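User: My collaborator sent over this chain with a note saying "see what the structure looks like." That's all I know about it. Can you take a look?
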Amino acid sequence: QVQLVESGGGLVQPGGSLRLSCAASGFTFSLSAMSWYRQAPGKEREAVASINRFSVATNYADSVKGRFTISRDNAKNTVYLQMNNLRPDDTAVYYCHAITYGEVQYWGQGTQVTVPS
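Assistant: Without extra context I'll predict from the sequence alone. Here is the result:
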């Protein structure tokens, strides 16, 4: 049974930091590309950051470059999103996403991040 379980969301003041975690199980995490997406109210889901299987390549949305960092620990089957200098427009539900070696996609249930204006 595949599971992606996000944690670490919450309410944080502008300029603050949060660290999201996504614990994966039920598939070969180390061979999977991992990403974080987010969806704000009334908006489409957008890609925030991605990391390849070997942690060599990362990509970020322009809106989070220099503030967010994605990383993974293959020994713990966990991907992280360190978010610094948070802004009100970062408010969204953040989702963990996996693409396995066989190109199967999985989504987590999401974790809410709220940055009040």
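A starting point for your reply to your collaborator: DSSP finds no helices and eleven strands in the chain.
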